[in-house]
């Protein structure tokens, strides 16, 4: 198994190893850019095209590096990758990179090109072969051009309205995959657990029992909501994203919503715990209303009627049942 202790310093690499490292790095970068392009092609075609062009250039860099290696050292290229060199910037795995958002992909690409440029500049300074030094210097300049191409495309998209369209699509995807499931979970967790928690509280006036009921109700609701979200929509037709992601978001937010007003009952004094729980319920209902207004564009009055009024009615029902 590879360990950090087995990493070699860049200064200890031979020129053949430096060329081999450059070849593997270009191959990795091209693969990552193609992954970006594949995941963006449907919703962000302009950015997908940019990443496809960058991948093609990385392929060309790899080709000329292979030619240089064959000319100087033969056809067999040593196996050396970034993770074998101490202090070298490691790329994200392709499967992880493909799950980044558009802005994160662009930022990652800029970081990749910056580090690649620095690598080629340093390698060129240490090379003793004039042809290799020139090639590495040219590649450093090419990596710098990649950053300029990315910035130029972003400016063109902004001017032509494409960037605004892509940003709107990215925002919509964020809302569908994270905000909407999270909001549904928060509403269910915050409101549906009010009745059992406060009914238990006023029926027993035992804070520890109330806390246990609250935790059980919150965790149970989180598991149920999470599995329901996963089973309800695979995201293929609706475009709502990974069902696993949505299920986790829904389940976690449902649990958090219920635990918010269950945790105060860790306070031994019943009325102190209950007053704190009332304050937290008010904060939860306000946060839900704000999220609905900001991300779902629900008017304030309508959001307040839907959430605050509904929450107050469920809370009152729980208290009345507990006192009955």
Fold and architecture overview:
Helix 6 (162-192) crosses helix 9 and helix 6 packs parallel to helix 11. The protein folds into 2 domains: 4-160, Up-down Bundle (Ferritin), CATH 1.20.1260; 166-323, no CATH class. The chain has helices at residues 15-40, 45-73, 94-97, 102-126, 130-160, 162-192, 194-204, 207-232, 243-259, 270-295, 300-323. The chain is an all-alpha fold.
Provide a concise account of the structure shown:
The chain has eleven helices and no strands. With 324 residues, the protein is mainly alpha-helical. It has two domains: 4-160, Up-down Bundle (Ferritin), CATH 1.20.1260.10; 166-323, no CATH class.
Attribute tags:
single chain; 324 residues; mainly alpha; elongated
Order of helices and strands: HHHHHHHHHHH
Poorly predicted ranges (pLDDT <50, ≥5 residues)? 1-5
Report the helical percentage: over 70%
Count of alpha/pi helices? 11
Give the SSE map.
Elements: H1 15-40, H2 45-73, H3 94-97, H4 102-126, H5 130-160, H6 162-192, H7 194-204, H8 207-232, H9 243-259, H10 270-295, H11 300-323
Helix pairs in contact: 1-2, 1-4, 2-5, 4-5, 6-8, 6-9, 6-10, 6-11, 7-8, 7-11, 8-9, 10-11
């Amino acid at each position: 198994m590879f360990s950090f202790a087995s990493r070699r310093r860049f200064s200890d690499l031979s020129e053949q190893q430096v060329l081999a490292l450059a070849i593997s790095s270009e191959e990795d970068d091209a693969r990552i850019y193609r992954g970006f392009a594949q995941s963006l092609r449907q919703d962000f075609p302009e950015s997908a095209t940019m990443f496809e062009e960058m991948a093609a250039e990385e392929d060309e860099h790899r080709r000329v590096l292979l030619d240089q290696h064959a000319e100087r050292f033969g056809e067999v290229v040593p196996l050396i990758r970034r993770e074998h060199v101490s202090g070298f910037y490691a790329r994200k795995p392709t499967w992880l990179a493909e799950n980044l958002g558009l802005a994160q992909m662009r930022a990652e690409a800029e970081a990749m090109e910056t580090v690649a440029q620095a690598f080629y500049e340093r390698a060129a300074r240490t090379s003793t072969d004039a042809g290799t030094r020139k090639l590495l210097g040219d590649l450093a300049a090419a990596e710098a051009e990649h950053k300029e191409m990315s910035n130029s495309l972003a400016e063109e998209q902004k001017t032509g309205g494409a960037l605004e369209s892509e940003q709107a699509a990215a925002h919509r995807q964020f809302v569908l995959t994270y905000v909407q499931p999270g909001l549904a979970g928060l509403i269910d967790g915050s409101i549906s657990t009010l009745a059992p928690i406060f009914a238990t509280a006023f029926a027993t006036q035992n804070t520890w029992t109330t806390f246990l009921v609250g935790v059980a109700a919150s965790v149970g609701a989180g598991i149920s909501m999470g599995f329901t979200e996963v089973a309800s929509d695979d995201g293929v037709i609706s475009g709502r994203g990974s069902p696993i992601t949505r299920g986790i978001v829904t389940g976690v937010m449902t649990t958090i919503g219920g635990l918010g007003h269950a945790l105060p009952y860790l306070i031994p004094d019943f009325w102190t715990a209950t007053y704190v729980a009332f304050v937290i319920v008010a904060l939860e209902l306000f946060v839900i209303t704000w999220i609905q207004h900001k991300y779902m564009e629900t008017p304030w009055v309508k959001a307040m009627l839907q959430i605050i009024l509904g929450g107050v009615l469920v809370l009152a029902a729980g208290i009345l049942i507990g006192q009955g």
